[in-house]
Amino acid sequence: MQAVKIDGLSGCTCSDLKHSMDTLRRGKPQGDHGMVLGSLEVGGAKRPLNNWNGIHLRHTARTDVGMVRENNQDSFVAETKLGLFMVADGMGGRAGGEVASALAVEALQAEVSSRFRDIFSTDVATRETIFRQAVNSACVDIYAKSLEMPHLRGMGTTSTLLWLPVQNHLEDARSGSSKALVAHVGDSRCYLLRAGLLYQLTNDHSLFQEKVKAGVLQPDSPMAGQLKSVITRCVGYQEEEEVDVFSFEPFRGDRFLLCSDGLSNKVTEREMADLMMEDDLHWVCDHMVELAKERGGEDNITLVLVALDS
Fold first, then answer.
1. Which of 128, 198, 212, 232 is the most buried (most CB within 10 A)?
2. Fold of 6-309
3. Domain ranges in the chain?
4. For 53-81, how does the pLDDT look when each residue is reduced to its tens digit (9 = 90+)?
């Protein structure tokens, strides 16, 4: 994980960042490096997002086939009424990847829609269990489809999902935890821009990342390009998969970026952070896609941007 400093705002060291992300996943205060996860301090004022009164949730999304591939195996969801934002990057041949990612977003969107009242009204632990079950329900659907159609055997998809506790039409619903949630499998990513710092909230489930964690390779190893493409977890290759799920408090001013590796492999985190500070989300999405294409665009490119504005 890395934090990228925006000019004029204080940053933190790599060890600070590791500690802050660990505490963010646990939902506990981090310390005194400018970011207190549980009550963010900016300019001396705490800004916890305890409710959505006065919050303007904006979002935009783009998907592009890129410069090399003939078909687009990425899918996404950006559903404000459900608070659901998701990117899925399919794999498994020309047809399989496209089918797998489409099935994943369809299954997750249907599950969140049908269980929204439960999700919105419950505590953190129960909510995390619901999302873990939902991702594995998508696993079952994709795996079953691959058994029905031999040419789809071995297909799977990444699944990186952000859920925000928007109340939408359920005015009578009992409010549960105010925390946001990320559920993640694969090497698509979710980033958070908060108080000028860009955090990678998710860990890549790739052979390269496993070797970096084990101390076998360094993050700047020349083998990165080769090993990053080997995914160690995906949705649908088997009937059940381990899902990373964690919750955290959202704050006014937060911005989120969900993206496939077609973007994260081409646009630097410094560039992401600088662009995400811009107000025009549509321009930001277009510009990020164009940067990825200018730098080769060998893979499909998909991103979802979400802003919590006052």
1. 198
2. Phosphatase 2c; domain 1 (3.60.40)
3. 6-309
4. 678 899 999 999 999 999 999 999 999 99
